[in-house]
Amino acid sequence: MELHQRASELGNRGQISEAMALLQRGIDEGEGEAAFVLANWRFEGRLIRRDIAEARRLFRLSYDLQFTEAEGPLMALLASGAGGLPRDWTAAVSLLEKRACQDERSSEQLKLITKMEMNSEGEPLTIFMPNFISSDPLIVKFENFLSNEECDELIAMSASSLAPSLVVHPQTGELVYDKIRTSSAAAFPLLHERPFLHAINRRIADASRSQWEQGEPTQILHYTTDQEYKLHSDALPGGNQRIQTFLVYLTDDFGGGETYFPHGDHRIRLPKGHAICFSNVSNDMRPAKNAIHAGLPITHGEKIVLSKWIREQVLDLTGPPDKPF
After folding, report:
1. How many helices (H) and strands (E) does the chain have?
2. How many other CB atoms are found less than 10 A from the CB of residue 285?
3. pTM over 0.85
4. Of the candidates 102, 118, 144, which is a domain's last residue?
5. In this structure, is residue 123 part of a structural domain?
């Protein structure tokens, strides 16, 4: 059994100090996978204290020790500056350039990044002006928010990760399957947010007048014939509230599938690359009844959308405070 595997077994049995010692020994011996395992532990904050800065250092060390799986997470953390660290967009794109020589998705994403209007730090320069669809509920649209090529790449990069969509259980807060939502989804948590997707998320934050750190992980939602998301609210029972929902339509060659708001009888269907943003809360930050909506059933074709939930405050990346080490 490999050293890092023994360490993982020890960690899962609660023998944290022994596991940490074993991983450190592996790192001292130049084992990149040991650094990778410890980096993930530091990022997750499940077995030991979450420390994003230390996770980034360990992913860099793992990459320098020739463990190639560390490349993606390192790229993501450099691009985002998560955990209060300085962003290094140039270094993130440089890693993508190296990866582009070996990987089709990376090559395509690099080409698309070079076409984006952004500054040297990866911040968007294009100003997207909202066009009001409704004031009650508050719904705005953004025309030509993504190019056709950007839409196609988001579809391609999500294809292998699709799984049944989940919803937040109103009592437990856990993600569970419910027949109210029959689509498939591919989620891109922070460590999977490569520079191409991160640049789009910065664009979403700019258009929605929010900070990137307020956004939940991006989801690509996939609906086929008869699939739907029945009437629901995107707001949460409590806590750091979901104040906005941002949707980008990645396809338009389907029947049905309108985003439907009963209040005002709004049935929204937009061309490929166009986006809507709507508020989920009232002025006192309570769930707004007028924002209840549905994704109506698909009659033919495939509806694919990018979905982004935006919170009232930045997401907490500190992790549980009571973990050892």
Report:
1. 9, 16
2. 12
3. yes
4. 102
5. no
